Amino acid sequence: MRTLVMTLTAITALAAMAFSEEVKPIQVLLVTGVDHPAHDWTKTTPTLCELLEKDKQFAVRVVKDPNLLASAELFDIDVVFLHFRNDKPLAQEQQVRANLSKFVEQGGGLVALHFACGAFGDWPEFRNLVGKVWDGVNTHDPRGLFTVEFTKEEHPITRGMSDFQTDDELYIGLVGERPVQLLAFARSKVTGKDHPMAFTFQYGKGRVFHTPLGHDERAIRTPGTAALIRRGCAWAASVDP
Fold first, then answer.
1. Where are the alpha helices (DSSP H) in 23-166?
2. Strands (E), 108-220
3. Distance between CA 224 and CA 197 in Å, rounded?
């Protein structure tokens, strides 16, 4: 009987361990704390946290100093979410660069939102790391309504989603030669051309999701944009959205 009890106890413990591993949340490091004056990160950051943590599969940690990317703790999380734009090089720029590229190359997920495309402007590899970067000249259409259209390419992030209208900034200054899988685009009133609104690619063993949408809290809360951000984070963590 004692052996049977011990066996049942062991089975219960193993089942508990398996369940614990199964429901382990996706660890997201939301990096913010500095941006262009037109972007109030103190308001958009809690909006992003609320958006992600409504989905119980996410656990978000916010760091308000991008220099913390230089820490070895970076390699204990699943997804780095870039939500900043720095005008000047970071105090620990070289170590941040080395850590960030190594993190993604080894299999970590990366998400870049809005003006994060303008971070690390003088780092050539950043263009490869986020797929496309701000060209330093062109910015966006005047803030207003436009339609985000999805491509016909099959992808877990956009599966089942429909084109949607948003009130946001339509970025027209993204450049980069790296091949990416375009998921969504919008037609600019300024250029008369289509510009990428969401795309993905693989960087080493890691997954990268990039969207220039999300100027402010209102834009982030747009259902279509919110879904892209949430599903993009899950995909970057190698979890089916």
1. 41-53, 93-105, 124-130
2. 109-113, 133-134, 144-150, 164-168, 174-175, 181-187, 194-203, 206-211
3. 12
Query: Domains in the chain: how many in total?
Result: 1
Assess if residue 145 is contained within a domain.
Answer: yes
Domain membership flag for residue 9:
no
**Residue 91, domain extent:** 24-236
| CA angle centred on 189, ends 185 and 190, rounded to 5° | 105
Residue, of 51 and 11, whose pLDDT is higher:
51
11 domain residue, yes or no: no
**What does the block give as tokens for 157?**
């992030």
Which tokens is 9 given? 């106890």
CA distance 191 to 131: 21
Average pLDDT over residues 173-182: 96
Reduced to 3 states (helix: H, G, I; strand: E, B; else coil), residue 228 is helix
pLDDT band at 23 (very low <50, low <70, confident <90, very high): confident
pLDDT tens figures, 186-210: 999 999 999 999 999 999 999 999 9
Residue bearing tokens 């998400």 = 111
Q: Tell me the C-alpha distance between 13 and 161, whole Å.
A: 41
Is 6 part of any domain?
no
* Residue 92, domain CATH: 3.40.50.880
**pLDDT tens-digit readout, 119-173:** 998 999 999 999 999 999 999 999 999 999 999 989 999 999 999 999 999 999 9
